[in-house]
Design a protein that fits this description.
The complex is a heteropentamer, with one copy of chain A, two copies of chain B, one copy of chain C and one copy of chain D. Chain B is of the alpha/beta class. Chain B is built from ten helices and ten strands. In chain B, 50% of the residues are buried. Classes of the chains: A mainly alpha, B alpha/beta, C alpha/beta, D mainly alpha. The complex binds adenosine-5'-triphosphate (2 copies) and magnesium ion (MG) (2 copies). The site of one adenosine-5'-triphosphate has 12 residues of chain E, from α1. Chain D: It comes from Litchfieldia salsa.
Chain lengths: 270, 257, 299, 265, 257
């Protein structure tokens, strides 16, 4: 009887996650872990060395202090150029991404071929490293801010269009239906029901990309595309670490300010 | 006048939404369609302004077969049919007035509307409509600041602004509590009577249907199983529409609604 | 800032790994890491040092690992932390490394039979610039401010010649404008395209551009050269004991007699020999840097 | 007929002033930007037409001979980026929780969390590389660490945003059950955030694969080094090949990760 | 037994959710609370398991004043009170079984539960509960694959798994259509009778309340305005609860519900 009872009880108490799903999750977990172990081996990871060497980092890090904040005036022109490049690039990318992200959202663009084509192009755009873009455009346009701006535009366009098309895909479709039902044209429908819904996200993504663009100019500086990056690189090469730290702190301040503006704008329009 | 002649609709996945529906809805009528979830009420109503396209038969609105309509014709058709939805379908983040003005989009050319340039007539009309549903003081509130009943009134105002010949309402009160539901139904009825707008409403509740309708159409599994004035509704009608008496159905817990 | 290298020597002891006091030479390390920063001053850039490292390892009987890095500040810091023991670093980087971490030069590379090279002033052939004095009021393109041949030497030369206080003054008072072009090639192209009037680059950057710009040899001429700049160094960290350093030196020198190695070095780095070098040879770089040192800081 | 127009919206004076200030600020920013930056478009265009044939055709004529070399670098990059972004994906979790307002109720802590993340993001790759090279030497591991830190700045920020948009009803339901905080985390929060966290981690992995210039600095080889060298040598054919390899590899990663996500979510 | 003694609740923003409520709910009762939106139904119910904390008075559950409870005591209190929500509050991405097992969390030690290690008894109990609401065949489906009615049944199963002494249900049927609503109410009633679990349900619909309740409590603006058996409900009760007779209210469109 007891035997019977237990059997019954067990039969009645199914596993929390079905065996098949469990196996699948375990398999994926093992693959990820396995690849990590392999990567650790290939990259010569060693916790001991890390702990041993940590002191070195401390010693080096100290050299960055005290940061020289008096350099603000000296670097201002380059910083201004960086900001200006980021402003232009972000603005243009934000404008261009509107049609692109609508075309790359499957709830607005119902034509499968068009949608897939735009997605494909955007994916390729996103794949190209910013450094390569900068190098190619410098080679094409010569040194100066323009190649940097164009590299930033393409770079941010990829990110923005992806993020925004995903937002568009998640909007409430009901108002669109209502507008269609009242005879509004497609453009009217988009303008009156899609735009208000994505506006807050749009702004915060644009500001996020603006921040990325400011930071990306560090890379751009290295290839002659202007901006604060050049100065930073030079300070490091000359061992003016406190100066480098000063620049980093100024970039940090800029990042925090942008983030603050972003929250404020979101609060204002949400 | 709206005429369904042997209208059938099969969804791409094979579900039959409508099965050989024949109906005539006359000018100025207030028709309520009742039926269980999945009976095809929405499909029927949405066929009329071609939000879905019946696959067979003929559907005439004002003596034109709208099943052949395309692009421009469709837009014109839709401007004369107003629609009210269960979830109000307002743009939550826009203010009430903008939402109501959206009802005029079909009558406005695209470019000016993009710059929010509506004519004084349009704006006056929109304001007038808001007043008719007694919600004018919320004109500049954002839609998501309103309660459900208020939102539905805004969506009625939007439809009024459209100056339609027909109003379709797809379960306009399903998300509202009973007093508010009655309020909304009362407004719909009032507009039907004052403006002589032919009105077709979907409802789950047969009791509410009987209170407001000139005529009740019962649907079940894509077919019209009852069609007649509210006064003719009997216990048997209930059975026809709901398959069996309500109580019994419920007690068979296992079944899905 | 640190003064002379002697002072640096005593100062660095505290910086280094405590276990290896300088006096008691430790036994041979298990592995030596050799770092290499290809500078654009050379006209081909290699992305591997493996053959060289292997050969050196054989000769020393210790495992030698070669690493190519793209930034010499990183290499110098790695040498400072004794993570890299042998560094192939340009003259200017050596001077800094010596000052900071007491890194010592043992050898230098020979190119085209010489242990030095020069930087050049590149101008358009059809321009009216005939002497350095004509450069006044013109636009100057240089690769970047940390480039030995592209910036330091020409800047020092011009400052000396025209009696300017600082690099800042050079860029704003003497020249109309200074542009950091990001590379020797970009600087030359800036002149070619008319964005700048003069570029300072290594000698001769035009050869690397001939493929893309076939007429560059005619369009651009060389206005002049700077004084000699010592070639890339082979430097070692102070933690290596003298015996090992001698071995390393000998091993490298032996490559000079090894046909196969010469070929490798030539193919990959354009070197045709390695020769001994002394710290004093780099004084010229040091002096040059001293002239500019303060004008580069930002305060 | 006289038209009855609606009353004008009443806007608070504060908001009006605020909006005007914002508008002026934005206009000023643009005026400053466009007057400050000098670009000769006509000339740049001209230049591009001239240079086009020097570069673009070569990019489309990749130098396949370099494939073994580029491929090796790519594989190396993959290992490093994988290890780096996995570490980042894990260590970003506590930071994400710290910076999320609805998880860390204490405003001071949240702000500290957000600032830490911003500070990390302000650190340029090259400095991270230098810092880690002195820790473990010029080897791929230094690259792994630098990438891990660099990625934490972005992942932590994204994670905290996911957490802030969490459906809190479920948490309430579990609270009503008598579940404790850890249990709510395990059964209510983690299932909700896993898909987004995964997507972002994979997205970051892709970024790390294609933007690994940092690896060149630490002497870890990698695709970034090759980009730098191809640039220095003006070797456009090799640049073309590098691009092809990156595009193909990232596309494959994208495909695999979509499959994995589908299976896990 | 649950006793409210002069319980008031003022929200931080000053809204009065409850005003001097006095109530006693006995073991095994099936109580339905009705009232308009904003009447304070949710506030009342959520006070009982302290999801909100009344600011005044005494609230006794099993003769202990729960308003003084903290941490550990609160968790223990909550394990014996099950709760059902309008929006089901299931973890959409977890499967049904995991969702139901979540009902046991309060009875399970933390560490094992983090690794989904539930005892055989717990798993058997959860499965049993699923069977009681006839949804066992969906055990490994993800919660978001289910219809509303099914999800609500899962959430009932979750509460059953908790083996509570009390069940609170906050508008459990507001998102469901009438037949499904009846189904869900029937299950709740069945459980109340079979397991003798004291059950308190919030509803908008007084008619539905009358069908299922032993006792009806009417609320209005934070006050209890009616308390008695369903049989005692009259036209006047309606008026008390809804402010005035329904019809009249509606016609005065301007008023908010
Ligand atoms: N887009 C669609 N694709 C496939 N089948 C659909 C689609 N829309 C509806 N259906 C199916 O068609 C039938 C009728 O649906 P319809 O929405 O018209 O019912 P309803 O009476 O409005 O129900 P409810 O009360 O739930 O709104 C149902 O079986 C439904 O599942
Ligand atoms: N967290 C809160 N903060 C401030 N006020 C609140 C809060 N929750 C509810 N209220 C207010 O308290 C009052 C009672 O709300 P409660 O949610 O209890 O009503 P209800 O009867 O459940 O209504 P409904 O039918 O809409 O759920 C309402 O005026 C409501 O606006
Ligand atoms: Mg429907
Ligand atoms: Mg409530």
């Amino acid at each position: 009887m007891t035997k019977d009872g237990t059997k019954k009880a067990l039969g009645k108490s199914p596993a929390v996650i079905p065996a098949k799903a469990k196996m699948r999750i375990t398999a994926i977990f093992l693959v990820v872990l396995g690849f990590y172990v392999l990567s650790s081996y290939k990259t010569e990871a060693s916790l001991m060395e890390f702990i041993d060497g940590f002191e070195n980092m401390g010693t080096l890090f100290q050299k960055f202090f005290p940061p020289n904040l008096g350099l603000f005036k000296a670097i201002w022109p380059a910083l201004a150029e960086t900001i200006q490049m980021a402003v232009i690039a972000t603005t243009i990318a934000a404008i261009l991404c509107v049609p692109l992200s609508l075309l790359a959202a499957n709830n607005v663009t119902t034509n499968k071929y068009l949608y897939n084509f735009v997605r494909f192009v955007l994916n390729i755009l996103r794949t190209i490293p910013d450094l390569v873009l900068a190098v190619i455009f410098v080679a094409l346009f010569g040194i100066g801010a323009l190649p940097g701006i164009i590299a930033l535009i393409i770079f941010s366009l990829g990110i923005l269009a992806k993020l925004i098309s995903e937002t568009v895909e998640s909007i409430d479709m009901n108002p669109l239906e209502a507008m269609h039902a009242s005879g509004a044209s497609t453009i009217q429908t988009i303008y009156f029901s899609v735009v208000p819904q994505v506006l807050p996200q749009f702004t915060s993504f644009v500001l996020y990309v603006f921040e990325i663009n400011i930071r990306a100019s560090v890379v751009l500086g290295l290839v002659g595309a202007g901006g604060i990056g050049q100065i930073l690189d030079q300070q490091i090469k000359f061992y003016k670490y406190p100066n480098a730290m000063g620049i980093i702190i100024i970039i940090f301040a800029l990042v925090v300010i942008i983030e603050y503006i972003s929250t404020k704008i979101r609060e204002a329009i949400v | 006048m709206i005429e369904f002649k042997n209208v059938s609709l099969t969804y791409p996945n094979g579900t039959k939404g409508l099965k050989k529906v024949n109906l005539t809805i006359n000018e100025g009528e207030f028709v309520v369609i009742v039926g269980l979830s999945g009976a095809g009420k929405s499909t029927l109503i949405r066929s009329i302004n071609r939000l879905v396209k019946p696959t067979e038969g003929e559907l005439k609105v004002d003596n034109e077969n709208i099943l052949t309509f395309n692009g421009r014709q469709l837009r014109t058709l839709r401007t004369k049919i107003g629609m009210i939805f269960q979830n109000y379908n307002l743009v939550k983040r826009s203010n009430v007035f903008k939402n109501v003005l959206a009802g005029r989009l079909g009558h406005t050319s695209t470019l000016p509307s993009l710059f929010n340039m509506f004519s004084n007539e349009d704006r006056a009309l929109a304001y007038e409509s808001l007043k008719r549903v007694n919600i004018e003081e919320k004109i500049y509130n954002r839609a998501d600041e309103l309660s459900g009943g208020q939102q539905q009134r805004v969506s009625i105002a939007r439809v009024l602004t459209q100056k339609p010949k027909y109003i379709l309402a797809d379960e306009p009160v399903a998300s509202l509590d009973p007093p508010t539901s009655h309020q909304v139904m009362t407004y719909l009825r009032k507009i039907n009577q004052e403006d002589k707008i032919t009105t077709i409403v979907n409802l789950h509740f047969i009791d509410m249907a009987m209170e407001y309708a000139d005529r009740i159409i019962g649907m079940r599994a894509g077919e019209v199983v009852f069609d007649g004035p509210a006064s003719e509704v009997t216990e048997k009608t209930f059975e026809e529409i709901y398959g069996r008496t309500i109580r019994e159905d419920d007690l068979r817990g296992g079944q899905e609604a | 800032a640190c003064g002379t290298s002697d002072e640096g020597g005593t100062a660095t002891e505290g910086n280094n790994n405590e276990e290896t006091p300088a006096e008691t030479p430790a036994e041979k390390p298990e592995k030596i890491v050799m770092g290499f920063v290809p500078s654009q001053d050379s006209d081909t850039i290699a992305d591997t040092v493996e053959p060289l490292a292997n050969k050196l390892g054989e000769a020393l009987g210790i495992e030698v690992e070669g690493k190519v890095m793209t930034d010499y500040s990183a290499l110098v810091e790695a040498m400072g932390a004794n993570e890299v023991q042998i560094g192939f670093i340009p003259g200017f980087a050596y001077v800094l490394a010596n000052e900071q971490y007491d890194v010592e030069v043992i050898l230098k590379s020979m190119r085209y039979g010489s242990g030095t090279y020069k930087a050049q002033y590149v101008v358009r052939a059809d321009s009216d610039i005939k002497t350095l004095a004509d450069l006044e009021g013109k636009i100057w393109a240089y690769p970047d401010a940390a480039s030995t041949s592209g910036f330091l030497f020409p800047a020092a030369q011009l400052m000396g010649e025209f009696d300017l206080e600082s690099a800042e003054a050079l860029q704003t008072e003497f020249f109309a404008e200074g542009i950091a072009a990001g590379g020797h090639d970009s600087a030359a192209i800036a002149v070619y395209e008319g964005d700048a009037d003069v570029a300072t680059t290594f000698d001769d950057v035009r050869t690397t551009l001939e493929e893309d710009y076939p007429d560059i040899m005619e369009k651009l001429t060389i206005l002049g050269h700077t004084e000699d700049i010592p070639n890339d160094t082979i430097s070692v960290v102070s933690e290596l004991d003298d015996e090992l350093v001698t071995q390393i030196k000998e091993a490298f020198m032996a490559f000079n007699d090894d046909e196969e190695m010469i070929k490798i070095m030539n193919d990959v780095y354009n070197w045709d020999a390695i020769s001994e070098a002394e710290d004093a040879e780099y004084d010229v770089v040091r002096d040059t840097y001293d002239k500019l040192r303060d004008s580069i800081s930002l305060d | 007929m006289s038209l009855v127009l609606p009353p004008k919206p009443k806007r608070s004076l504060f908001k009006q002033v605020r909006n005007i200030v914002i508008a002026i600020a934005i206009i000023a920013l643009y005026v400053w930007t466009f007057t400050g930056i000098d670009i000769d478009f006509a000339r740049a265009f001209d230049r591009m037409m001239n240079n086009f044939s020097r570069i673009i055709p070569k990019l489309f004529d990749p130098n396949w001979e370099a494939l073994p070399k580029v491929w090796d670098a790519m594989v190396e990059t993959l290992y490093i980026a994988f290890a780096g972004s996995l570490l980042a994906a894990i260590f970003s979790i506590p930071l994400g929780f710290l910076a999320a307002q609805n998880m860390t109720k204490n405003r001071v802590l949240t702000t500290i969390g957000k600032w830490i993340l911003s500070a990390i993001r302000a650190f340029p790759d090259i400095i991270l590389a230098i810092l880690f090279i002195v820790v473990v030497g010029p080897k791929p591991f230094a690259g792994v660490l630098a990438i891990a830190i660099g990625s934490i700045g972005m992942l932590g920020k994204l994670y905290s945003e996911v957490l802030e948009s969490l459906d809190t009803n479920i948490i309430e339901a579990m609270e009503a059950n008598g579940a404790n905080k850890l249990q709510i985390l395990a059964h209510g929060i983690i299932p909700q955030i896993t898909p987004e966290f995964l997507s972002y981690a994979i997205y970051r992995f892709e970024i790390d694969v294609r933007a690994s210039t940092i690896l060149g600095i630490v002497g870890a080889g990698g695709i970034g080094t090759l980009i730098v060298f191809a640039k220095m040598n003006r070797n456009w054919e090799e640049m073309g090949l590098i691009l092809v390899v990156i595009i193909v590899v990232v596309t494959i990663i994208d495909f695999i990760s979509t499959q994995i996500r589908k299976r896990l979510v």
